[in-house]
Amino acid sequence: MTTQRVCFQLQVKPGLIEEYTRRHAAVWPEMLRALKASGWNNYSLFLRPDGLLIGYFETDSLTGAQTRMAATDVNARWQAEMAGFFENIDGRAPDEGFVRLDQVFRLPPTGSSAHA
Fold first, then answer.
1. Residue 24 catalytic?
2. In the chain, is it the N or the C terminus that has fewer CB atoms within a 10 Å radius of its CB?
3. In which domain, by residue range, is 51 found?
């Protein structure tokens, strides 16, 4: 199965950046386990001072990873707590309201000729 690299963006509300950062310094262990079990691999978040949030993870299937997470109790609780941190998600949970970014370039790993 091919690994998908997923990159996405969200916008953290300017007045909540410090609290958002604090919350992610102590992600619930149950949430971390659920992410791994659901196929959110090599998951990272990057935050600009103006609140632009870029996320990246690798998975066998974005839809499958989202579906598996949606089936967990901990995800519902986490998304409910996080929803108020973001602009422009139109009532959706953050893990469903993000804007996916298209990959336009990737430096192939050493010894590979793959471009995507």
1. yes
2. N
3. 4-101
